[in-house]
Structures are given as C-alpha cells and as structure tokens.
C-alpha cells in the first residue's frame, strides 16, 4: 500500500545476522501534516487582522491625550512583534512543506555586502562589524532562503551582543572542498547545557532577555530548516560571557567554482 509509511532500521546483530526493524509511522506523519497545515492556516488568517490593527495604530496620535503616547508606543511594538511572529511561522511552514530547494547560483559577494549592511542597520553604530571573504566561489541553492538563514544569524549576533562588541561575518573554504559561512560575536554566549535544544521552535535561553530584545524564538529553527534543505549543517560554538560563533557548513556539491559557473 503506497499510503503506508514505514521507518526502516537495519541493526547489526551478530557476525552474519542483521535485524530489520520496521515501524509503521503512517499515523505519525499524518498527524504531523495536520499540525503543519493548522499552524500555516492560523498564521495566514492572523495576517489580515494584524495588518489592520497595525495600520490604524500608526494613525492614532490624539493631541489632547499626551499621556497615551507611551501606551500607543507599546501597542505598536507589540503588534510589530506579533506580525514578525506570524511571518516567521509562515516561513517555517513554507520550509517544512518543501523537500526540494531552488538551484540558483547564489552570488556570495553581494550576499556578504547585504549582510554587512543589515548588521550595521540593526546595530546602529553600537557594534564593530567586519566581513571577510576567503573563498572566491558561489553556492548552489535558494538565494531567498539562504539569505533569510544568514540574516537570522546576523540579527541574533547583533541582539545578543552588548554595545561595543564585535560582529565578524566570514565566508571561507572547508578542508573537504566545501564552504562555510560563519557569524561570530563577542556577546552574552550560550551555556553548553542549552546548546542541544537551541534550534527547537520557541526555545530560548532567557525568555525575558529574548523578549526584551525582540526575538520570536523561531530564528534558529528557520536556519536549521534552510540548511537541512541544502544538506548543510549548523555548527555552534559558544562561551558564556565571551561570545558565540554560528557556522553554516556546506558540502563540496553546494560550491560553485568560478570556472564551473562560467561554463554552466
Ligand atoms: P530569538 O528570536 O529568541 O532570538 P532564535 O531561535 O533566533 O530566537 O534563538 C534562540 C535562542 O538562542 C535565543 O532566544 C537566545 O537565547 C539564543 N541565541 C541565539 N543566538 C545567540 C547569540 N548569537 N548569542 C547568544 N545567544 C543566542
């Protein structure tokens, strides 16, 4: 029956024998699909009312009620946060529904320039931002999704680094002929005990700090999904009080050398 989904595992048993374990995951996958559609639909339905609330809030500036100003500011901030949350949920749903990714030539020189600009705009002069490219090759994949992943890492680096810190974006070759894009900061760092769960949806080290700094808790989930669609992985190194480095590691098959690019 083609509708039945099996999860197969082959386990060595003895010198000559292997165990084949088959688990019926049809129901589990169906449930996962229902959950995914539900989240996507709810997010989509929330978009329009939020746009209306957001739009009207921007128009409100009662001159005879100056004491309302801070309340209105807070309402604007919160509705902005909600909008970001809905957008991030929609992005995640879109990523989860894909099992293939675009095969663009992702031009890395403009990508790095854009990331630098974004970091500087977010930082507003509070951090020292550097970009280094040690690899003259592009990537193969989705320009849009990779930009969203890299941008999330840059935004985290800025938000979780106090003023005066450094943010370093680096694109470099890996020993196996692949490529790595890393974002290093000198910020708060992440305790080792949190690292295994850090890419889970809504997982945060410190809820109060993240909330204050305006995150949705979905950024790293998005990064993980985008990378997995590119058969790439996320490596995280971090030390509390010293900073963190998030590295996106791409295999050689994702690297487009200049010569290949020219003949393609
Ligand atoms: P958020 O929207 O809360 O930033 P993310 O999924 O992007 O959500 O990150 C999850 C959590 O990981 C954050 O709440 C924060 O605690 C931690 N984190 C992410 N990036 C960094 C970083 N560069 N430095 C320190 N902590 C980080």
Automatic annotation (TrEMBL):
What molecular function does GO assign, one term? Answer: phosphoprotein phosphatase activity
Q: Which GO terms describe its cellular component?
A: plasma membrane
Subcellular location, in the record's words?
Cell membrane
Q: Could you tell me the keywords of this UniProt record?
A: ATP-binding, Cell membrane, Kinase, Membrane, Nucleotide-binding, Phosphate transport, Phosphoprotein, Transferase, Transmembrane, Transmembrane helix, Transport, Two-component regulatory system
Domain Histidine kinase spans what residues? 41-254
Q: What is its EC number?
A: 2.7.13.3
Signal sequence residues: none
Which leading EC class covers this enzyme?
transferase
Please, one GO biological process term?
cellular response to phosphate starvation
Q: Which domain of life is it from?
A: Bacteria
Purpose of the protein: Member of the two-component regulatory system PhoR/PhoB involved in the phosphate regulon genes expression. PhoR may function as a membrane-associated protein kinase that phosphorylates PhoB in response to environmental signals.
Reaction equation(s) it catalyzes: ATP + protein L-histidine = ADP + protein N-phospho-L-histidine
Q: State the covered range within the intact protein.
A: 176 to 439 of 439
Q: What is this protein called?
A: Phosphate regulon sensor protein PhoR
């Amino acid at each position: 029956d083609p509708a039945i989904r099996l999860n197969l595992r082959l386990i060595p048993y003895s010198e000559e024998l292997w165990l084949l374990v088959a688990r019926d995951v049809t129901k589990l996958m169906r449930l996962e699909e229902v959950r995914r559609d539900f989240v996507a639909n709810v997010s989509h339905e929330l978009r329009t009312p939020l746009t209306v609330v957001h739009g009207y809030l921007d128009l409100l500036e009662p001159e005879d009620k100056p004491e309302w100003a801070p309340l209105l500011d807070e309402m604007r901030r919160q509705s902005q946060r909600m909008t970001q949350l809905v957008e991030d949920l929609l992005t995640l749903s879109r990523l989860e529904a894909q099992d293939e990714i675009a095969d663009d030539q992702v031009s890395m020189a403009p990508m790095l320039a854009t990331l630098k600009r974004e970091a500087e705009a977010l930082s507003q002069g509070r951090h020292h931002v550097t970009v280094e490219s040690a690899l003259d090759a592009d990537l193969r994949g989705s320009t849009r999704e990779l930009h969203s992943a890299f941008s999330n890492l840059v935004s985290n680096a800025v938000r979780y680094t106090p003023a005066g810190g450094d943010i370093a974006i680096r694109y470099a070759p890996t020993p196996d002929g692949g490529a790595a894009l890393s974002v290093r900061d000198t910020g708060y760092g992440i305790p080792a005990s949190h690292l295994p769960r850090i890419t889970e949806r809504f997982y945060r080290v410190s809820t109060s700090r993240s909330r204050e700094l305006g995150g949705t808790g979905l950024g790293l989930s998005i990064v993980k999904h985008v990378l997995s669609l590119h058969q790439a992985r996320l490596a995280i190194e971090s030390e509390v009080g010293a900073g963190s480095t998030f590295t996106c590691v791409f295999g050689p098959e994702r690297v487009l050398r200049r010569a290949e690019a020219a003949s393609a």
